[in-house]
Design a protein that fits this description.
Elements (H helix, E strand, L loop, with lengths): L36 E4 L9 H14 L3 E5 L19 H20 L4 E5 L2 H13 L11 H4 L2 H4 L1 E4 L12 E2 L4 E3 L8 E2 L4
Length: 195
């Protein structure tokens, strides 16, 4: 049963629930033929909104989707961006990664049996671009990729990297079906393996 938030009697009664109140959603039976898929993008950690993230985690715990798709730009990778002109200490980058790891672990705890896929966006691509431009010898080595840094194998999170030869990435788009394309109207796509 959903509880309405109690508040002092307003002069004008509210016509809609508070923006911080999640509406009651009917839960599907787990024997349903359908899967619930949640697609979320542009967290841009560490510049994310903590209140929005808390609501999103609450939503995940309540709705228990079968599949969570992190559709690009989960991390910001600001310190290795070509746009950053400030000196880099590495400490902020380390904190950014630790924050992302913590959030991914919380997603896995909330969804222990769900399929989770992280699609590389242009912000995640900054890692590969940085290595290619500044440390080619390290590119492709174990431990210096997004999946390795975030320990995705242990968390059982799939990582869908953008095409290796692409030089420019925009937001990823998901359509009804099983394809993810990096450009609207382009013939490029990623086909997810069967679950």
């Amino acid at each position: 049963m959903c509880r309405q938030r109690s508040s002092p009697d307003p002069v004008v009664p509210p016509t809609s629930p508070s923006s911080m109140h999640l509406p009651c959603l009917t839960h599907r039976m787990k024997t349903s033929l359908y899967q619930v898929v949640v697609i979320a993008n542009d967290f841009q950690i560490p510049f994310h909104d903590e209140r929005a993230l808390s609501l999103f985690k609450l939503f995940l715990r309540r709705e228990r989707p079968d599949w969570l798709i992190l559709n690009g730009d989960f991390q910001d990778f600001w310190e290795i961006s070509s746009y950053d002109l400030t000196p880099r200490s590495g400490q902020e980058f380390k904190r950014e990664i630790e924050t992302g790891q913590k959030i991914l672990r919380s997603f896995r705890r909330s969804l222990p049996r769900a399929r989770i896929t992280w699609i590389e966006g242009n912000h995640e691509f900054r890692m590969r671009k940085y290595l290619i431009q500044n440390a080619r010898e390290l590119y492709g080595l174990p431990g210096v990729s997004v999946p390795d840094i975030f320990d995705l194998k242990r968390l059982k999170i799939e990582y869908a990297a953008c095409h290796e030869l692409a030089t420019k990435f925009t937001d990823n788009f998901i359509r009804v079906g099983d394809l993810c394309s990096t450009w609207v109207g382009a013939g490029r796509g990623y086909r997810f393996p069967e679950a």
